[in-house]
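BUG-386 | component: ligand-complex export | severity: low

The export step for flavin-adenine dinucleotide jobs runs without errors, but we want the raw record kept on the ticket for reference. Input record follows.
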Amino acid sequence: MHVMIAGAGIGGCAAAWALQRQGFTVTVFERASELREVGAGLSLWSNATRVLRRLELGHVVEELSVGMADGGLYTHTGEQLARNSMQALNDRYGDPNIVVHRADLLQALVAAVGRDNIRTDASCVGVTQSEDAVTLTLKGGDEVTGDVLIGADGIKSTVRGAIGIPLQLRYSGAVGIRGIVTLADSDIAPDEDVYGIYMGEGRHVGLMPLSEGRAYWFVSESAPLGSLPDPDGDRATFSERLAHWPSAISRMIGATPEDAILRNDIYDQRPVSRWCDGRVALLGDAAHATTPNLGQGACQALEDALILAHCLARRSEAPAQALRDYQHQRKRRAYRVVTASWWAGQMFNMANPLLCTLRNLALQKRGDARNVEQLSWLLDEPFALT
Ligand SMILES: Cc1cc2nc3c(=O)[nH]c(=O)nc-3n(C[C@H](O)[C@H](O)[C@H](O)COP(=O)(O)OP(=O)(O)OC[C@H]3O[C@@H](n4cnc5c(N)ncnc54)[C@H](O)[C@@H]3O)c2cc1C
């Protein structure tokens, strides 16, 4: 069986590798002329590291990443509201929680898939299908026919539109600003206890360790859509607003090269009733783009990849049914993440001072044991594969 995949992001490449391991022939079509990820970190929770290990990509977990720091939740004045014990989380859920550079993860996936199986400068512009096959039209007019097509072409997926599922983008009310800093360029010691999430009124900040003496930071700021003019750079406009926050934040931001700072309006996709049509299915952000507040978008794409390959292998004689099985197994959970992440964003970026005080009190009261246990719906084994 020949499986075609539109999009060589983390989701598309993970799916390609998972399918190859099940014996399928896979071709990935990528719009861009080179395979690259943005310069940012990615938190991968134990639900994702479990998938990586199952796909024999344990070296990403063991060698290319660092464990999430104990850190915790803080107010913008640095008062600790809750502490995450990563050891307790790892013990409870069995697989580690890590932070990895996006490019390192993508590179590891591309190496597994094999560069020859990925076509770049190959933008998918149309899809037709019959009972027996699916045909992908590429920009420039080339047509490629295969047995199944997976649309892993991101939040503005073309494949999604081609199978009649509308884009339902929903602006979260926040912009994300992020960057990677070399710790030696800042005056932060590698083992300094600064990592965690800091919450103020209308914004929150995350600091995470990365491999090779680097750290990853992000700022999420409430802002009306279209209020930030410049997609890159412009550090002064937002770091000024963080001047009275714990100094590690401005030290990290200040030591990040201006042109390495990324800014995005944050969207997700409203839940829809289906992700597949005949021999075509969606995966990752194309199916269920989520806000980054739980750090789960890529984790969910990895789960998709594993389950998709499993469903197709189990019913390769009936691919359309296999894709419906995949949708059935994944949809509820992925949308639970979308919803929980949306509300987490509303909570982290709350602007009303009184509500912020109540939020902080509630978080303080919850206690570390409940912090660990409340993640069970997300981090417990979500699938039983035979
Ligand atoms: C600010 C921010 C922080 C985040 N932090 C985290 C985190 O810490 N942890 C986490 O798990 N997730 C996080 N996410 C979410 C995560 O980045 C995404 O969920 C994940 O990258 C989705 O992967 P994907 O492969 O589905 O889509 P994408 O990464 O968007 O890849 C889609 C690929 O398809 C290609 N493409 C697009 N159109 C076409 C076409 N027509 N033809 C061919 N190719 C096409 C694109 O060029 C791209 O290579 C974050 C997201 C944001 C915005």
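Assignee comment: Attached the raw record above. The pocket of flavin-adenine dinucleotide is lined by residues 6-12, 29-32, 42-43, 123-124, 152-154, 158, 176, 178, 264, 284-286, 292, 295-299, 301 (CB under 6 Å).
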